[in-house]
Amino acid sequence: MAGQPDSFRPGQTVARRNHRGPHVSWAQATTVVSDDERGLVLWLPVGADFDFRVRPDGRMLRTGTIEDFGAAPLIRGSWRHNNVLMWHPPGQAHSVWWFFHDGQFSYWYINLESPFTRGPDCIASVDHHLDVIVRPDRSWEWKDERDLAEVIGVPGFWTADEAERIRAEGRRVAAIAGSAAFPFDGTWCDFRPPPHWPTPRLP
Q1: Predicted confidence band at 81 (pLDDT cuts at 50, 70, 90)?
Q2: The domain defined by 13-178 carries CATH number 3.30.1360.10
Q3: Whether pLDDT at 3 is above 50
């Protein structure tokens, strides 16, 4: 929270890491917008460092066993296509992303994930595979349902009951979107980063 030792400073570079068991499966270099009682807001611009695990054919490793993630090399790439603003509400099993294309807001993205934990210059969470896309008119649809289904019952992932709780969280936040309540009320849809911010790099 604001004023506490573990708060991040606006403009600070923070690595946003996703874990599969003991392994970092991917990491995004982001810039802190704000960090207060409402949550942590991060900026992920096109060109920011983006580390990810790759399959033997060079494609990003998205699903697999914990052992698959441990064996796959972690390579450095860069974030592409869209600038993204990310809001992480404290203690919640999701984050909300604002996608911007050519400087204009495109849509919201509900990223279902474990509540984040903090390090000195990073946050960490476990992605839950299933996501929700929310259009500007607040209609919504699931994304990556197949990805979630493929890991139900796989050691290190989720049981059927846990998968249903993940879906329930998605439905809960989608209902907030449908009511046009915060954060789907237009907040941050006109966000522009300070022009002096450099493109964030991972340490």
Answers
A1: very high
A2: no
A3: no
Cα–Cα distance between 15 and 18 in angstroms, integer? 10
CA 98 to each of CA 25, 75, 79, 95, 164: distance values in angstroms, whole numbers, following the listed order: 22, 26, 15, 10, 25
Distance CA 104, CA 118 (A): 30
Torsion angles phi and psi, residue 71, rounded to 5: -85, -25
Residue 177 C-alpha from the chain's centroid: 17
| Residue percentage of the chain with pLDDT more than 90 | 79
Q: What is the DSSP letter of 162?
A: H
**pLDDT at residue 103 greater than cutoff 60:** yes
Q: Quick check: 2 pLDDT over 70?
A: no
Can you spell out the DSSP letters for 14-77? EEEEEEETTEEEEEEEEEEEEEETTEEEEEE-TT-EEEEEB-TTS-B--S--HHHHHHSPEEEE
CB 41 within 8 A of CB 87: yes
pLDDT of residue 150: 87
Q: Where are the domains of the chain?
A: 13-178
Q: Which residues pair with 60 in a beta bridge?
A: 54
Give the per-residue pLDDT at 4.
45
Which residues lie closer than 8 Å to 61 by C-beta, 6 or more apart?
A: 25, 52, 53, 54, 55, 68, 69, 72
* pTM of full prediction above 0.85: yes
DSSP state at residue 200 = P
